[in-house]
Amino acid sequence: MNQPDKPKAASTGGGLFQSRYPEASFSAIVFGLVFGAIMNAAITYSGLKIGFTITGTAIAAVMGFGVLRGILRRGSILEVNIGQTVASAINVVNAGVIFTIPALFLLGERMTFSDRRFWLITLACVAGSVLGVVFIVPLRKQMLDIERLRFPTPTAVAAILKAPGAGTAKSVVLVMGILVGMIVYAPSGLPALGLPGYAALDLRLPAKIDPALSANSAGSSLTEQVDRDRDGQPDLVVTNEAIDVGRWLGLPDSMLLAFAIAPFAFGAGFLTGRPGLLVLAGGVLAYLILNPLAYTFGWIPATVRAHQVPAYALDAYNRPLGIGMLLGGALMGVVTALPSIFEAVKSAALASRQRAGLRAPRDEIGLLSLALIAVSGIAVLLIVVEYLGGVGDLGDGGWLRSLDPPVARAVVVLVSVAWIWFAGIIVSQCSGMTDWSPMSGMALLTVVLVMMLAGKQAVIPAVMIGAALCVAISCATDMMGDLKTGYLVGAQPRRQQILQLVAGTLGPLVTMATLLLIVGANLKLTGLPIGPGTPTEAPQAQALRAVITGVQGGEMPYALYGLGTTLGVLLGLGSFAGLGVLIGLSMYLKFIHILTYGLGCVTNIVVGRIKGRAWAEAWGVPFCAGLIVGEALLALVINSLVLVRG
Amino acid sequence: MRLIANILLIASLVAGLFGAATAYLPPLSLPDDQLVGATLSAPAGARAGSDGVLHPIAATGTRLTPELIAALRSAGVPRVRVKEFSTHRWTGSSLFLASCFGLAVGALLGRAERKIALTMSESKNLDRGVTPEIVLTTIRRAVDDLRAELTQIPGESLRQQHALDVLTVVQENLVPEFVALRPWLTVRIGLAGYARLMDRFAAGERQINRAWSAAADGFEAELAACLDCAAELLAEAAARLEKKAPPSEAS
Q1: Are the beta carbons of B210 and A489 separated by less than 8 Å?
Q2: Integer CA distances (angstroms), A498 to A17, A90, A366, A555, in order
Q3: CA distance A95 to A114
Q4: A635 with A185: CB under 8 angstroms?
Q5: Cα–Cα dist B155/B162, whole Å
Q6: A344 and B195: CB-CB below 8 Å?
Q7: Which of A205, A475, B25, B204 is deepest in the core (most CB within 10 A)?
């Protein structure tokens, strides 16, 4: 058994730096800070390039294992847990920033390090990171102890941390999973470095000649079904990203049935198990039933070709309906969970060492401390909005136009803070149930909400508050995930909470600085700050820009959001209050990943039937944890190389 | 009944989504006065250009006029997408309302079925001799026995390995068995009572998990302290369960 160096025995360890069993040690914290900053910068760049970020928790756990236990030969399981808590606290912020702030550059705004707005926006994001954590901490007991949400990836991380004590066989299975994850993902990720990927296998559809076109010597003579880009060759069945099973089976083009080559999605689906099938159900409804029938009935413009239907339908109705259902389902989830939320908060308020016979240290940061920190975060947001301007200063004042500008600004901040609280719960619940995070949907709603409150021209404050919200909910979700991992290895929640609060304030600075460096480099190379025409296209921010211009042009389908919310609420009347959340989520997430995720869920059920639930749990969890970690590790290496090479 | 509830839910959801999707898609069969003045939010119709590429008859942002409506009708366009929502133009409203009714009925049927299933599973568990009290007692006994055994086993690595073996069984078998009794417990003692019970149980479980980690890392003092703490917390959980459960069912 691996035994790190043991410190001298000390008295009971209720403080942050307890010495009887190393947990929040100097080496763990320093590792977390350094590695977290490196991950943040690398993933910020890759997120702007490819449109999504990767969670750093699993990577940080593996690296912490290697550095603290392997190289320094002193890390306990709990120290590695603290290392990954700190690292992920710094890293997770980038998702919130890159979804939102680049939209300002796309809309023509410019910022530099000497610009006051840069520091105000960074400060708002810091406030967001703090608020996200303080709002979610009181719900730890409700989500983890009472509801016992699964949190698949944090569960996988715990399996990694516990590997040394779990026995050689399980460690071998974990390592096999990591290798399989890397091998399967490599041909998908390496093309980012200019290396060949799955597309090089050149697996194409069978050729089908169109007699009408074959008479024409110019252009492709193949049918449009097999040759969409009209290059004279049948299209690839296996691309670097996905395997297009639907096209290979000859399904109608309006049906999307392609599986992403994503070991992490499969692993997350396996770890979720049966409940994940509800997520798959929403995507099936949208992409395999609603879209093809809408196309058949002529609801899609005739200029939209069959294979363009999924993208068109996503903007036209799937995304607004899905987000609406998510909201309605979340509302029902919160309402039905109120008794357990109330009990959890009551328990947190009454918690003291005496209740556990002087043995157990205090579990959480006290409610009074949390309240003071929250008030500080809200005060910072108020100050930032006051100095940033844009609310109540311009002509079109929105719903608050009759109020004095300072009062309007305060109302905007307070409503936003309430929304941060609610959205943090929704996203953490989603993430806990399925491993998927509807953060982009929440960002979109936030920007729309602030613009409606403050006026359609209040773009900068709307995007800033959107960024603060996204940072808040990503920190909240990360906190709850880390607390889940901590729960499974026996960490003291209070230590993780304190370190998350402190480390999380550094994340926005790293991300914003990286963003400005990238903008500066792009301006030198291409004359453009970000977006199409630069190496960093920022697809998520492009989607947000489209929403902003949609709101300004009066084109938002508000009724669809309302109707979706109604459906979500009604679905939640049944025995599972969160049903609307799961179904709504997958209506607007990338379906190719949902399908691979669903495959993982089905595999879990089948393996459980054949080998038994205990076997599936005992061996499936470490293997799938390895899949998640393997892809994440390789993605980080590739992203870092992309960052270095530019 | 579960099958009926699920079929009703699925059918109603599909109907609801179809009904909702038409909210901004008025059919061109509506009278002109309900369509004129609306603004297109997507291209409408198509005609082949001289380059062979399809071009829309009306582009996004075009306001509907009687002439344009007539042209789109003669081109066979069934529906157009508009920016403005109006209940007069929303032909899927009846379908949507029917789906809402279906979802509500399906949800209520599902709840009723779940109550019946819970009662049946409770009696199955009783037949197997599995009650929350018995499972919790088994966990407590495992922890207490381990505390006693650790004082008697010679050799540090033997003690630590034994602790890992026992605690792994508790974590992987006994705890999930207790957690699986949640539906039964929430019916018996209510959600608030279940929350109070799990507050202590989960705290005890976390100490068991910490004990496992301490054993894996070779910290015996911490292992012993965590087991003591776990024993106390599980005793509190048992006391809460006994207090809330009806006397005839407490073991």
Answers
A1: yes
A2: 11, 13, 11, 44
A3: 24
A4: yes
A5: 11
A6: yes
A7: A475
- 115-174 of A, contacting B, C-beta below 8 A: 141-142, 144-146, 148, 162, 164-166
Residue A175 CB-half CA count within 13 A: 9
A319, A325, A326, A331 alpha-carbon torsion, rounded to 10°: 150
Which pLDDT tens digits describe chain B residue by residue (251 residues)? 788 888 898 899 999 999 999 999 999 999 999 999 999 999 998 888 777 777 889 998 899 999 999 999 999 999 999 999 999 999 999 999 999 999 999 988 888 887 777 777 777 766 677 789 999 999 999 999 999 999 999 998 899 999 999 999 999 899 999 998 988 888 888 888 898 899 999 999 999 999 999 999 999 999 999 999 999 999 999 999 987 655 444 33
Q: Are strands B54-55 and B47-48 parallel, antiparallel or unpaired?
A: antiparallel
Altogether, the residues listed in chain B come to a count of 251
Q: Which pLDDT belongs to residue A390?
A: 61
Neighbours of A63 (CB within 10 A): 23
Asked if pLDDT for residue A351 goes beyond 70, the answer is no
Contact (CB<8Å) A77/B213: yes
Check A20 against B55: CB less than 8 A apart: no
CB A49 within 8 A of CB A541: no
CA distance A223 to A209: 6
pLDDT digits (tens, 9 = 90+) for A428-466: 888 888 777 777 777 778 888 888 887 887 788 888 888
Q: Is the distance from CB of A1 to CB of B216 less than 8 angstroms?
A: yes
- Write out the two tokens for B159: 């003690």
Distance CA A578, CA A275 (A): 11
For every residue of A450-478, which 3-state class applies, written as one string?
HHHHHCCCCHHHHHHHHHHHHHHHHHHHH
Residues found in chain A: 646
**Token pair belonging to A47:** 């997120």
User: Region A244-262: what's the mean pLDDT?
Assistant: 91
pTM metric for this prediction: 0.81
For the cut 90, the answer to whether the pLDDT of residue A231 exceeds it is no
Contacts of A144 (CB under 8 A, 6+ apart): A480, A483, A484, A487, B202
3-state secondary structure of A227: coil
- For residue B58, what are the β-bridge partners? B44
Checking if the pLDDT of A226 tops 70, the result is yes
In a mutational test of the B interface, the residue from A563, A573, A583, A588 whose CB has the highest number of chain B CBs within 10 Å is: A563
- The amino acid at residue B241 is L
What is the per-residue pLDDT across A281-292, written as a single tens digit (0 to 9) for each? 889 999 999 999
**pLDDT at position B12, please?**
93
Whose structure tokens read 């070991």?
A263
ipTM for the complex shown = 0.80
Distance to chain A for B251, nearest Cα, Å: 23
Contact B199 A573 (CB under 8 A): no
**A618 within 8 A of A167, measured Cβ to Cβ:** no
Among candidate residues A533, A381, A583, A529, the one with its CA nearest the CA of residue A467? A381
Residues near B155 by beta carbon (within 8 Å), at least 6 away in sequence? none
Predicted pLDDT of residue A19? 61
A to B CB pairs, distance under 8 Å: 218
Helix residue ranges, H only, A53-115 = 57-64, 77-91, 93-106
Residue of A nearest to B218 (CA): A3
Distance of CA A169 to the CA centre of its chain: 32
Full DSSP string of A506-540: THHHHHHHHHHHHHHHHHHHHS-SSSTTSS---HH
Residue A389 to residue A375: CA distance in whole angstroms: 21
Largest CA distance in chain A: 89
- Residue A53 confidence (pLDDT): 65
Q: What is the C-alpha separation between A467 and A99, in angstroms, rounded?
A: 8
